[in-house]
Design a protein that fits this description.
mainly beta; globular; about 50% strand; 5 strands
């Protein structure tokens, strides 16, 4: 997917991987503010909150030009809990 340059995004070129259940599983992009570091962002641990499926576990790893995530080099780890919408 290519995002228009006027939108604030990680990068203009991004790839989304969707599971058979319709939920995002991986999001690949270059972290432009970090010098263009290629990132594989994995999403899991989905929970439903007021009818919206929210991933509670996020793990980001650098990836190689052939698309392989370097899982031994964790860039960011985010775990969410106690999520509410108001």
């Amino acid at each position: 997917m290519t995002w228009p340059g006027h939108l604030a995004t990680h990068s203009t070129e991004q790839t989304l991987y969707v599971g058979n259940d319709g939920l995002f599983r991986r999001h690949d992009y270059d972290i432009e503010i970090a010098g263009g570091t290629a990132c594989a962002h994995y999403l899991c641990g989905y929970t439903q909150i007021t009818g919206i499926m929210i991933p509670t576990v996020h793990r980001m790893f650098p990836w190689t030009p052939d698309g392989q995530a370097l899982r031994d080099l964790l860039l960011v780890s985010i775990d969410l809990s106690e999520i509410t919408f108001t």
